[in-house]
Structure formats: C-alpha cells, structure tokens
Amino acid sequence: METRRYPIGTQTFSKIVEGNYVYVDKTALVYKMVKEYEYVFLSRPRRFGKSLLCSTLKEYFEGNKDMFNGLQMAELEKDWVKYPVIHLDFSDNKSNDIDSIKESISISLNEYEKAFEVENIAEGLSARFSNIIKSATKKFGQKAVVILDEYDATMLNAIDNDVLQSQIRTVMTDLFSPLKKLDSYIRFVFITGITKFSQMSIFSALNNLKDISLMPDFEAICGISKDELFTQLKVGLQDFADKNNLTFEQTLQVFKFKYDGYHFSTEMQDVFNPYSVINALNDKMPNDYWFDSGTPTSLLKLISKFDLKMEDFDNTECAASRFNQPVEKVTDLIPFLFQSGYLTIKDYRSYFVGTDVMGIYTLGYPNGEVRTALADSLFRNYYKENDSIALRTAYVDFMQTDDIDEFIKHLKIFFDGFPFSMNNDKANELHYHSILYTVLTSFGADIAANQETALGKADLVLKMPNTIYVIEIKHNRSVNAAKKQIMNRRYAKAHLDSGKRIVKLAIKFSSRKRNIESYVAEEEKLNNK
User: Fold this and answer.
1) Which CATH class, in words, describes the domain spanning 13-218?
2) I need a surface site. Which of 314, 344, 421, 510 has the fewest CB within 10 A?
3) Strand 356-364 relative to strand 446-453, pairing
4) Domain segments of the chain: what residues?
5) Sign of the dihedral defined by the CA atoms of residues 414, 416, 417, 419, in that order
C-alpha cells in the first residue's frame, strides 16, 4: 500500500504538486475569487494556509497550467494567461530593529528589480516598488499581479512596542502607497494577514479593496471543511483510526473535538484547523499541533494587561462593529483574539433597530486544542514546570480513582507555591475561581464555568469519566454557605440524568492562608428530593 505523503513544513504549491503530497483542492474557490474581484484582503489565523493560498495564486497567474492537472481549476479555466507576479512574504520579517526590517524588504525588491530588468533603481521603497510594477508590465505586456503575504507580521511582532510599531507602520504605508496610483498597471492584488491595521493607507486609500474574511462564499478558502475532511482526507482518517484502534466514527469525534469549530461567517460552516489536521494525519496522533511553538508572548502580555480570565473569553457577545476596532493600540482584546484564531463565531443573531439591522455575534473557543493550550500557556505563567508536572500527575490519578481528598491535597500544595505577587490584592472568590478553571482546563478537563441552571449559575462543573463534580467556591465565607448554595439552587439536580455519579463540592478559600481552608464533598442521591 502506497504511503500518503502529507506536506509537513511546506506551503509551496509547486512543491506539493510535484512531490505528490496530499493537497486539499481549493482551486474552485481561487477561480471564483479572481474572477469576481481585483483587489482582495483575507484575514485568517496563523498557520491556516494563507501562504499556500498565495503560492497557489502565484502559479495560477504565472500561467502554469500543468500544475493544476486533476484539480478543479483545470476544468474551470479555459484562457490561461501568463502575468508577471510580485510576491512579497513578510512572515519571516520579525526583527525588532527598523533598519533590519527595511533591509529585508530592500533585498526582496532587489530580486524583482533584477527579474523585471528595472533600468533605473530609484531611491526609497515606494519608488522602487512602483518602478518594479511598471517594469513588470512593460516586460510581459500584461498587467502585474501583486501578492502581499502576512503583511502585518512585523507589526504584530511589535504590538507591545508603540515606538517600533509606529516606525514599521510608516515604512509599510510608504511601501504600499503605489498600489492606489498604479491601478492601470495592476491585474490583481491579494493581501493576507491576521488583522487590519486601520491607520495603514493600504485600507483607506484602496477603496476598491474587497475584504472577503467574513464572506460565506469564501469561508473555507483556507482551512479544511467538513466535506473535504470526509472525502479528500477520508483515507487518512481511516489510517488514523486503524493505527489507534478506533472506529471511523470515533476518529471523526476526536478530530471534531480537537481541531474543528472555526466559523468565519454568519453561516457558520465548520472549518477544521488545517495545520493540526495534516500533522495529526501524518503522525497518526491527536496532539496539540497549532500551539507547538507556544502562545505568542505578546498575547500573554495583553491578557495580563487587561486582567482577563479564561472564562471571560467564552460566550462573549459583541456587535459586528467591534471586529473593526483598530489594533494599533489594543483597547479591546476580543476582536484581536477572534482574528488570531483563539476565538470563533459560535452564534449570530440579527434584529432591526428602526431601519437599521443590528448584528450580535457570540464568540467562544473553537475547539479543545485551542482551549486547552491557551489555558496551559496561562497556567505556566503561574508557577514552575516541576510543580506543573506534579499536579498534572495528581489530576491523571484523580481521573482514575475519583479520590477527591487526594487531589485536593495536591491542590493545596499548588496554592502554597503560588506566587505572592499574583495573589496580593487579587485574592477573592473570582480570583480562585479563575485559577481553578484555568488549571483544570490546561489539563484537558471537561469543565464549564458559570454554568446556568434554572435557579442560578454553578461556579464550576467538572465532568470526569464516572463522576460530575458541581463546585461552589467561597472566599472568607463558611464552607457551609457554599454547600447550602449548591443545595438551595439545585445545581446538582441538572445533571441527575447524566448516568454518572454526582458530587457536590463546596470549597472555602482563606485570605489568611491564601489557600483552601476547608471543603465538603457530598454525593447527590438520585432519590434526593
């Protein structure tokens, strides 16, 4: 049996085709996009296939018909034209020095000056870029195609450095300025990034720039749709199932839980994370691949700056206008988390306000991989790796034994080692609630915060293999108060039909000890009225 080759570490369309790697065919959507629009912007999270899409566009516009044999594009395109393509990739240009950034751009421009035989090398990035576009058109007798991949990479890298970001924005604004003036020389412009920097003239000057980021027609232009997973990757799924002694249906559930759940329009077509899916199929292991290089430090700094908690991100409601808030100086982290892939659209509803339509989005974590890995990154900010391993081991034992007394013993050790600086002036009920939620989430626990019932909201509901723990937390108040709240508001009753054992867990934290002072765990009986 021939081994299927997965494109691990490559985003180059020609290499994937020539190397006979697995390729999820997106060429019908590429065809639709280039026929309908001339200036396009697409926002997608990192490692979501933007660079592969750019590479595919490059091969298409360069007229490399043979590259598309057997793909949908071969059936759709009848008139193959060879255009000059200027493809600038900013993804690796993440220096913290403005001169190095300018030098990197200069080197890229120099390559095109040679390729298109630019006669007079101008001074300044803008003039050079302009001359390249004009020379390309003159040399080929066809308008130029401009592809700007990860245009915002340098600015996102400097998101917590106002001075550097301002310098980068000035350089980029100057570089992109010819695009508006040279419309008669340009056939197509494609710009990708994670977010829009509103003060960039590229967005204000290009009034014909079409943002397809939230358009239903292009929701799956990056990523893997459910249909593509079930058809084009079906053999890989079966290989995964066979390797792990799972049924095909069980394998689908694994992939859905860990890698599915992205929605990029109000129609909410399921999109799977392509980077994670391809790696999981290649390794035949359900690991957390999207975060293998860690959550960006800049994001953790922003979360800390806004004093946001893990549970603040889930089921967050926002108006459509919130997505367009500027990110130059982050004043609202929610749109940034959405554009970066940490949150996705979970629900959308609209209603009329007078003659205007108001749209309300509900955002939340897309899948288990993102939820767990973000919690893990925040958890590692709390304390040392060795302590983390000990508590993780205790949690694994807890899953197998249901010994709550033993697990709480380890939780107390954890809180004894919790940094005083992170407790001081913050120690309250919400603080401990958030820490427990983040810690357990980082272990991959099936846990919900502020779960609504008929009479209120339970602080935490932890679902274990055989038991559901309904948890109420109090700070400097008696454990009996927590116990009575669970009983009086009937939090446990909501889970009696789960088929699992239900345990009511009341916990008191003390400001004097900065730790768990007491707790009570009682089983909810099925016949308990």
Assistant:
1) alpha beta
2) 421
3) unpaired
4) 13-218, 224-283, 297-364, 383-524
5) positive
